[in-house]
């Protein structure tokens, strides 16, 4: 089947969301931990994390338009810190539940049964159950007028990686860590490596 612009636009709204979200293939699945000035913790499911550069160490996330239920962007702008936590198969159901629209001020940690963890000088909560996780300081945000989303860029300040997952050349073996990936809006996957290849040259 070939789906042109008119056919895609004619899809029922939820059908179109599933179609477009699946079209790009596998995506990173992470939980973003934040906290507001009153001490309320927030944990949100994201599949829009992407690498921006290694020097300086930057990553970006896309946040949907703010609603009465969304706290992540407000907390990032308020505290200037957030954590990014990989998801393992052992708590994929809890991670999925973090995408529910809990009211502001309600802790997803408490609602789904995950454990907040803190490191000195980092005000945002990590997910204790997560094997690979890192903390970012807020650097920049850009409004994307086309659909009301926001690109948020953070600088990676601290990373926690299990010793057995870090290879001699700096490669982090996320498959060894059991990191889960996602496709579409609600499908979760483990991976199987084909191989690592040498640096490509002409």
From TrEMBL:
<dbReference type="InterPro" id="IPR002563">
    <property type="entry name" value="Flavin_Rdtase-like_dom"/>
</dbReference>
<dbReference type="Pfam" id="PF01613">
    <property type="entry name" value="Flavin_Reduct"/>
</dbReference>
<keyword id="KW-0285">Flavoprotein</keyword>
<comment type="similarity">
    <text>Belongs to the flavoredoxin family.</text>
</comment>
<dbReference type="GO" id="GO:0010181">
    <property type="term" value="F:FMN binding"/>
</dbReference>
<feature type="domain" description="Flavin reductase like">
    <location>
        <begin position="29"/>
        <end position="164"/>
    </location>
</feature>
<keyword id="KW-0288">FMN</keyword>
<dbReference type="GO" id="GO:0016646">
    <property type="term" value="F:oxidoreductase activity, acting on the CH-NH group of donors, NAD or NADP as acceptor"/>
</dbReference>
<dbReference type="InterPro" id="IPR012349">
    <property type="entry name" value="Split_barrel_FMN-bd"/>
</dbReference>
<protein>
    <submittedName>
        <fullName>Flavin reductase</fullName>
    </submittedName>
</protein>
